[in-house]
């Protein structure tokens, strides 16, 4: 949507009377005191001098930086508007038309608030059905079966789960709307255990839970570290910084530490601790059935 700047209510108010007037207006001749009919000035000009019984209206072009859009008899052109916050100029101001503005990339016009708002982002488990424009917000949809999204974005669509068997791998954990399928190679010499495979979905897991900032700090404080390696967790850390700290732990944690995670989450008041424990059990079961005995489900 192309829309005028915040100055336009005043502009329109000042021109409302003009808009309702014909292309002539009545004036009193200052020399004779008689009523005379004068010509109005066309768009792009203003009335420099009113007509008299012996002279016509004197119309002059609007100087740079000003405009008139309607036939008028105002003594001064209107000042060109300025685009507001999160707006860009769509059309430059000319003598007969003010500039027109639209929301800049990444924003859309919200009529209710008469302002540009940032496009909404689709959360984990959602894809972008329709990308936002200058007129409309992003439209999200829930990822259907067989697809997932593990990112917060106003651009990305849902992605299909990995096909483990097509790559010669074994399926350990079927993908959900917020994480991909977890696959394993059962070749001789593979030493990874269930907790190592659970590690793959943990970054998505913490974002998907949408924990409050207070609970997220509690989780970061209680993560199991070895010795004095625990980093400081202060109240000034924002959500993004806490995720970075948790992801750093996930990348460096031992399998034994990851196995402690579900119980730790439960003690920290995170209800998803039990669900994470169930995912780990399913992974371990599949590892046992598929990789140890090499039995493949049909």
Strands of the largest sheet, in order across it? Answer: 1-2
Q: Work out the strand percent.
A: 15-25%
Please summarize the sheet with the most strands.
2 strands, antiparallel
Instruction: Please give the alpha-carbon distance between the first and last residues.
Output: 55 Å
The number of distinct structural domains comes to 3
Order of helices and strands: HEEEEEEEEEEEEEEEEHHHHHH
Q: Count the beta strands.
A: 16
Given the C-alpha coordinates, what overall shape results?
Answer: elongated
Question: Could you describe the 3D structure shown?
Answer:
This protein folds into three domains: 1-103, Ribbon (Tumor Necrosis Factor Receptor, subunit A, domain 2); 119-160, Tumor Necrosis Factor Receptor, subunit A, domain 2, CATH 2.10.50.10; 164-292, no CATH class. The longest helix is centred in the last third of the chain and has 20 residues, at 273-292. The strands form eight sheets. A two-stranded antiparallel ribbon has the order 1-2. The chain has helices spanning 8-19, 194-198, 202-208, 213-222, 239-252, 255-267, 273-292, and strands at residues 24-28, 35-39, 45-49, 58-61, 66-67, 78-79, 87-91, 100-103, 107-110, 115-118, 126-130, 139-142, 147-148, 159-160, 170-173, 182-184. The chain has seven helices and 16 strands. The chain is α+β, with helices and mostly antiparallel strands and 298 residues long. The two termini are 55 Å apart.
Which descriptors apply to this entry?
Tumor Necrosis Factor Receptor, subunit A, domain 2; 16 strands; 298 residues; alpha+beta; two-stranded antiparallel sheet; two-stranded antiparallel ribbon; 3 domains; single chain
């Amino acid at each position: 949507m192309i829309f005028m700047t915040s100055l336009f209510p005043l502009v329109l108010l000042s021109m409302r009377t003009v808009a309702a007037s014909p292309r002539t207006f009545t004036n009193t001749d200052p020399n004779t005191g008689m009523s005379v009919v004068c010509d109005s000035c066309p768009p792009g000009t203003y009335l420099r001098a009113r007509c008299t019984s012996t002279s016509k209206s004197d119309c002059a072009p609007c100087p740079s930086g000003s405009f008139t859009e309607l036939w008028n008899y105002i003594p001064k052109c209107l000042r060109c508007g300025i685009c507001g916050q999160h707006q860009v100029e769509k059309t430059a101001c000319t003598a007969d038309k003010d500039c027109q503005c639209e929301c800049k990339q990444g924003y859309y016009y919200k009529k209710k608030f008469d302002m540009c708002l940032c496009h909404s982002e689709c959360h984990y488990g959602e894809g972008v059905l329709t990308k936002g424009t200058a007129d409309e917000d992003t439209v999200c949809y829930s990822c259907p079966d067989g697809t997932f999204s593990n990112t917060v974005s106003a651009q990305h669509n849902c992605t299909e789960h990995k096909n483990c068997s097509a790559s010669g791998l074994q399926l350990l954990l079927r993908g959900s709307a917020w994480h991909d399928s977890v696959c394993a190679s059962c070749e001789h010499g593979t030493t990874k255990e269930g907790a190592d495979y659970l590690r793959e979905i943990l970054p998505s897991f913490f974002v998907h839970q949408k924990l409050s900032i207070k609970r997220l700090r509690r989780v970061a404080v209680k993560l199991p570290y070895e010795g004095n390696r625990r980093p400081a967790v202060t109240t000034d850390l924002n959500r993004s910084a806490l995720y970075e700290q948790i992801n750093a732990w996930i990348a460096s944690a031992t399998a034994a530490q990851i196995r402690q995670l579900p119980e730790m989450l439960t003690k920290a008041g995170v209800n998803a601790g039990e669900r994470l424990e169930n995912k780990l059990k399913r992974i371990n079961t599949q590892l046992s059935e598929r990789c140890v005995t090499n039995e493949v489900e049909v």
